[in-house]
Amino acid sequence: MISQELFHRLRAAQLRSMREQEILSGRGWLLICGLAHILTAVYPLFLWFNVWMLRSQPLNQRLHPGYNAGLTLLSGALLLGFWWWARFAPYRAALAAMISYISIQGVLGFLDPHQLVASATIKALIFIGLIQAVRVGFRRHRPA
Amino acid sequence: MPVPDTVLSALPADPTPDRGPFHRGGPLAAFVAISGVLATLGAALIIHREGASTWPVAGVVALAVVTAWAGWCVLERWIHRAGLPRSHSVLAGCLGFELPFTCRDVAATVFFDPDSLQAGSRTRLLCFVENHAARQRVAHFRIGPHRELGLLETHTVALRLAPGQAAVYSLPLAIAPGLRDGEHDLPVCLRVKKPSGTGARLAGSRRHIFDVRRARFAAPFTVSRGEPGAPLPDLAREAGEARFLTLASVSEPGPRLEELETLLASRPPHA
Q1: How many domains does chain B have?
Q2: B96 in a domain, yes or no?
């Protein structure tokens, strides 16, 4: 076994290092947010095809499902674009991704407030992911 | 990540051979097998009732192949359920380290000892690794670059880990005299390869929600009372040789932490 002094010394140093540890990088968070956002476009796409192919009435929505699906896919593609940019500038890319996401959701909410309520949970999760990306990016960005 | 030509083995060598199943055969395989059996049977009955055509039959055959593969993984694990050694769990158990994740069944942590020091003094980077799988792993560490620690280029090292083996890689480093006071960190990236299959997870190893493919560390250290403006010597050459020591082997009754005591009892070379 090892001495108590060495045991405590190693534990203290390891604990300090562990606090600096991040399981996912800011880039990883951006990728997850982008993919999750593209998945949320499945339902608007389904509605759009339903209206388009079957000539059925939109389900009590102010915004046409085609615009909704297009904006959601654009949002997801934008997040994936920021994921690619984060290779070169992680902090700036994460910050820009969060600002863009808030802007697009603001536009969507203005056009159809029902959208904000309908997928509030997944949007909140994506927003938390983007905050994590900015936080991790900031910690790596700041001068040591 | 640049891959080094040679793979280092810890001293003393761990003779533990690979054991158990090649595949994991865990809950995911069981889920695929069970749901695959249900889906295959259902689809086959529908085809039998409605009449067969080429594409549905091809789909059912493909589904059956996937189901059979998942079933074989589960069966393979069940066949080898006995005879697997028990992990000593050195990092989380004996040393009490907090490990939020594993990297392909390898628990790892990276830090400096000492981590608070003066500019111009020596320290060592400790990379602790422990293989929780019943098959060998190769841990690829990419350390740096960090000019003020003498790592002008990325230092890459590949460490072979026998099943259940715990080891420590010690890399002596020197702090440049001109490094300013304050908090600094050294980026370290770990990627683990499985040259002989995934294998079963050893009993006694702590389970983690996260089992990532690549882990990133930022080993912190604090520098005090620096002397700005001093020239940079060839720090890496002055700092001494790296060492890779075995801390535990499942072929032995208990861990050998005396090696760690010996390694860390002395200050880094030329401290």
Answers
A1: 2
A2: yes
Q: Are residues B93 and B210 in the same domain?
A: yes
Residues of the domain holding B102: 7-19+86-265
Taking contacts as CB-CB distances below 8 angstroms, the residues of chain B near A16 are 111, 115, 220
Amino acid B66 reads: V
Taking the whole predicted model, whether its pTM rises above 0.90 is answered as no
Residues B68 and B141 in one domain: no
Interface test with chain A among B88, B94, B95, B102, by most A beta carbons within 10 Å: B95
Please indicate whether, in this complex, the C-beta atoms of A10 and B95 are within 8 angstroms of each other: yes
Helix (H, G, I), strand (E, B) or coil at B7: strand
Q: Is the ipTM of this complex over 0.85?
A: no
CATH of residue B171: 2.60.40.10
| Domain identity same for B142 and B243 | yes
Cβ-based neighbours of B268, under 8 Å, separated by 6 or more: B122, B123, B124, B172, B239, B240
On whether residue B162 sits in a domain, the answer given is yes
- Per-residue pLDDT 10s for chain B (271 aa) are 555 668 899 988 999 999 889 998 888 899 999 999 999 999 888 888 887 778 888 889 999 999 999 999 999 988 988 878 889 999 998 898 988 889 999 999 999 988 888 888 889 999 999 999 999 999 999 998 888 888 888 899 999 999 999 999 999 998 888 788 888 888 899 999 999 999 988 988 877 767 888 888 888 888 886 555 444 444 445 456 889 999 999 999 888 888 888 888 766 554 4
Alpha helices in chain B (DSSP H): 27-50, 54-79, 235-238, 258-265
Q: Which residue of A has its CA nearest to B212?
A: A23
